[in-house]
């Protein structure tokens, strides 16, 4: 048994590692090859290229890397076809993987895509290409599966591995002790994103929001996990520009930072799901490069963009989008959550319902669906 996989970014690497481990229960002698990150490699995948090569975000940002990505996809397609795996599994990276899956499926290789692209939200015409490219779509969220069922594309809702890993509310006191924070004073976690571009757009507004909150709550503390060492100089420069703040910049470990917090101010993305599962009240911000945003805003078909609101099916969290991602908008929203228990409790009740829905044993369910496809 040979299984080829291509994962994009760190989140895809985590999903791929869990899937490989689960598939080994069925195929202990299987060979796993493709594009992988460190977790997939540790799980037993032979990587031909690093998953970091696919980590590009934004319309114009992708355009700059397009020639390189097209060359890489062509090279991968040729190698996978020559290797003739029993199945190909594309993990996230939809723009890259869907085209690859189409070529492989045309050559008779069974294809699976793990993590639905946001076709339900924008550029819905992509569903036609997806239908031609995949034998099976694996979705993390139930509303995505319904969309594929409506378009007669084979799909399996598997849940989210994070919902399996995070069992319930973490111990706030222990997290604060670990980070050297006061046990009694309020804590706000700041997560402006893991990419330099995100930090450039949201870093200063987040710190200015912290400054406003400090003027209202004199004992408030802030913790900011630095996603990657390369971003620390950028963060420290921003802190210098803003001036003195009770700010603790820590290395990575976003989960501990969120666990320690009373409220999280966070960039839209997978980290918002982690905050939801940790049962932490949040305010979500979203900002793209202006040129990318002007194009996307014309294409998006949904009114809500944050995962907590999409999963809850209502306006559970405050969303501060693009020009609204300002201290004037964000600081009052965070302040309300710090000072209004009823608002905070209603949000956490919605989060608990979502957590229960997503706890499905995702890696095992995904492996079962792949095994079923291979047996068909």
- Second-tier CATH architecture of the largest domain: 3-Layer(aba) Sandwich
Q: Mean of residue pLDDT? A: 90
Task: Point out poorly predicted stretches.
Answer: none
What CATH calls the topology of the largest domain is Rossmann fold
The span between the termini is: 15 Å
Count of spatially separate domains: 2
Main β-sheet, spatial strand arrangement: 3-2-1-4-5-6-7
What is the helix fraction of residues, given as a range? Answer: 40-55%
CATH superfamily of the largest domain: Glycogen Phosphorylase B
What's the total helix number? 17
Main β sheet profile: 7 strands, parallel
How much beta, percentage-wise?
Answer: 15-25%
- Rg, nearest Å: 21 Å
Under CATH at level 1, the class of the largest domain stands as: Alpha Beta
Q: Which class do the helix and strand fractions yield?
A: alpha/beta
Shape: globular
Overall strand count:
13
Query: What is the H-and-E element order?
Result: EHEHEHEHEHEHEHHEHEHEHEHEHHEHHH
């Amino acid at each position: 048994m040979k299984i080829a996989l291509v994962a994009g970014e760190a989140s895809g690497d985590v999903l791929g590692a869990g899937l490989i481990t689960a598939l080994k229960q069925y195929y202990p002698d299987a060979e796993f090859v493709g594009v992988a990150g460190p977790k997939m490699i540790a799980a037993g995948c032979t990587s031909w290229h690093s998953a970091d090569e696919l980590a590009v975000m934004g319309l114009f940002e992708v355009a700059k890397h397009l020639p390189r990505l097209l060359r890489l996809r062509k090279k991968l397609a040729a190698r996978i076809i020559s290797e003739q795996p029993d199945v190909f599994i594309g993990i996230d990276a939809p723009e890259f993987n869907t085209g690859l899956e189409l070529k492989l499926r045309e050559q008779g290789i069974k294809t699976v895509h793990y993590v639905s692209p946001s076709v339900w939200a924008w550029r819905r015409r992509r569903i036609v290409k997806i239908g031609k490219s995949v034998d099976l779509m694996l979705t993390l969220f139930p509303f995505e599966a319904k969309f594929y069922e409506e378009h007669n594309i084979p799909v399996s809702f598997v849940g989210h591995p994070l919902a399996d890993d995070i069992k319930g509310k973490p111990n706030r006191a222990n997290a604060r002790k670990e980070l050297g924070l006061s046990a009694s004073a309020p804590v706000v976690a700041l997560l402006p994103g893991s990419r330099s571009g995100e930090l450039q757009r949201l870093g200063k507004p987040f710190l200015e929001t912290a400054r406003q909150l400090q003027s209202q709550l004199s004992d408030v503390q802030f913790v900011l996990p630095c996603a990657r060492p390369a971003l620390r100089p950028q963060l420290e420069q921003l802190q210098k520009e803003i001036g003195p703040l009770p700010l603790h910049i820590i290395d990575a470990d976003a989960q501990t930072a969120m666990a320690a917090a009373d409220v999280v101010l966070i960039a839209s993305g997978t980290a918002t799901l982690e905050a939801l599962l940790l049962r932490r009240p949040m305010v979500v911000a979203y900002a793209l490069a202006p040129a990318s945003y002007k194009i996307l805003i014309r294409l998006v078909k949904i009114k809500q963009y944050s995962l907590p609101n999409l999963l809850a099916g209502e306006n559970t969290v405050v969303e501060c989008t693009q020009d609204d991602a300002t201290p004037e908008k964000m600081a009052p929203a965070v302040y309300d959550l710090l000072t209004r228990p009823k608002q905070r409790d209603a949000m956490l009740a919605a989060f608990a319902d979502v957590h229960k829905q997503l706890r499905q044993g995702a890696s095992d369910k995904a492996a079962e669906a792949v095994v079923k496809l291979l047996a068909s």
